[in-house]
Every structure is written in structure tokens, then in C-alpha cells.
Amino acid sequence: MGTFVLAAEEFTPPGQGLFNYPPIFGDVTKPMVLAVLSLVIVAAVFTLGTRKLAIVPGKGQFALESFYNIPRNSMARDQIGSADFKRFIPLILGLFSFILVNNLFAIVPVIQFPTMSRIGFPIALALFVYVFYHYAGFKKHGFAGYIKHAALPPGVPMFIAPLIIVIEIAQKFLVQPLSLALRVFAAMFAGHLIIALTAVAAEFMLFAGGALVVPAPFVFVAGIAFTFLEALIQVIQAYVFALLAAVYIGAAIAEDH
Fold first, then answer.
1. Nearest Cα to 257, choosing from 183, 178, 164?
2. Residues 230-257: b if buried by 16+ CB within 10 A, e if exposed
3. Which residues contact 217 (CB under 8 A, 6 or more apart)?
4. Beta bridge partners of 19
5. How far, in Å, CA of 77 to CA of 63, rounded?
6. 34's torsion region: left (phi>0), alpha (psi -120 to 50) or beta?
7. Three-state DSSP class for 28?
8. Where are the transmembrane segments (predicted)?
9. 3-state class of 152 per DSSP?
10. H, E, C per residue of 82-145
11. How far apart are the first and last CA of the chain?
């Protein structure tokens, strides 16, 4: 028991410093490099994968088309509508692909860092989507028409209209972009921290000796399980971000509230 207590006192769990990287050169850090790398990967995959399209697709084309159909059909078409969705496919596809690659970096050996765990990247993407869907709304309805469209659902009784207007304006102009950024950031931050904690704890227990050696393999296995779970969450968060972008665009250009 004395060995356990002594070891526990010496153990330092990973913290916020896990996400802080010194500049590689100038002011360029590892997360910045990963963001650029993800753009290169996405561009290369779609460029190379669409060079020789065939009516009867091969395995590579079939896989790429299957991936493309996710943002095209279940996001853009279903949420924006069959009349308007095609012009928004590149945006939804780009968001889904970019965020997915950056999230999956967390489980790639050597890289092992989710870019979206740095809050600046989700905020930048959320602000881009925010500007885009409001611009689409203003373009479709006009300035006054879009404000009315966004602020007051049809059929609301006049005696509660002021309260509804405040709630709707706050939701569409403040809450939506904030929640869009925080959702993916929090998931990537927490997931990366948990996986790092299990890895560091398993190593510490293994080399600490004494009673701590016994649970070390179980902590290591838990870390592997968390890694698979985190991979699923990484895909889901990329999907949810792109899906919500489509939902907001669809709501902004819809004829009805």
C-alpha cells in the first residue's frame, strides 16, 4: 500500500500542455502544418480519384462515390432541399472531408494530434459557415425579409412575439455558431486527453512496480478501447458539423421559417 501511495503522489497526469506545441519555424506550429496537410490530402484524393471516371466504377471510384454520397444526399439534399442543394455540395463536402481528416489525425501514428482540439480552428470554420448561411439568407430574401424570416416564425401570437424574436435572434446569430465550434472542439479535446491519460497511466503503472503493475495491462487495454471509441466520435463529429451547416443553410433559404 505504501508503494501505491508513493507512486500515486509521483504520477503527473497530462494536462493542457499536451495541446501546446512550440513553433517549428517562425510562428508555424504542428497544428498549422496538420491543417495544411489535411487540405493537401483532401485535394489529392479527389483530384486523383476523379481523373479517370468510368460508367462502371472500379473499387477506388466506387469508394470515392460512396463517400461523396454521404454529404450530397444525407446532408445537402435532405436538409437544403432538392431544388437548391446542388450548389452547396462543394461546401458541405469540403467541410466534412476537411474536419474528418483533421480529426482522424489523432489516431494516426507519429502525428497523433486532432487539429480541431485547438479552439481556433473550429471557431474559424464556424465563423465561415455563419457568414455563408446568413449571406445565402440575405441573398434569397433580402435584408428586411431575411431578418423577419429568421426572427419571427409564422403564426406566432402577437402577445409573445417580442419574446420569440429575442430568442430566435439570439439562437441564429449567437448560439448557432458558438455551439457549432464548441461541439467539435470539446469532443476532440476530451478524447485526446483521455487517450493520452490511459497511455501515460499504463506506462507509469508498469514501471512503478509493486501493486501498480497488476492493473497496468487493464489500463492499456482500456486505452485501446478508448482509441476505437474516439475514432467513431471523430467521424460522428465531422458528420455533425457538416450536417448542421446544411441545416442552417436550408433554414436560411427556406421559403417558410
1. 164
2. beebbeebbbbbbbbbbbbbbbbbeeee
3. 202
4. none
5. 20
6. alpha
7. strand
8. 32-49, 88-113, 119-138, 150-174, 180-200, 207-229, 235-254
9. coil
10. CCCHHHHHHHHHHHHHHHHHHHHHHHCCCCCCCHHHCCHHHHHHHHHHHHHHHHHHHHHHCHHH
11. 64
Contact between 198 and 219 under an 8 Å Cβ cutoff? The reply is: yes
pLDDT of residue 164: 84
Lowest mean pLDDT among 159-163, 207-211, 231-235: 207-211
Place of cell 492493473: 215
Residue 74: CB partners within 8 Å, gap ≥ 6? 243
pLDDT tens for each residue of 139-193: 998 988 888 888 877 777 787 888 888 888 898 888 988 999 999 999 999 999 9
DSSP structure class, residue 5: H
pLDDT of 1-41, one tens digit each?
Answer: 444 444 445 777 787 888 888 889 888 999 999 999 999 99
Looking at residue 129, its pLDDT comes to 96
In the numeric block, the cell 460508367 is attached to: 55
Residues found in the chain: 257
pLDDT at 103: 96
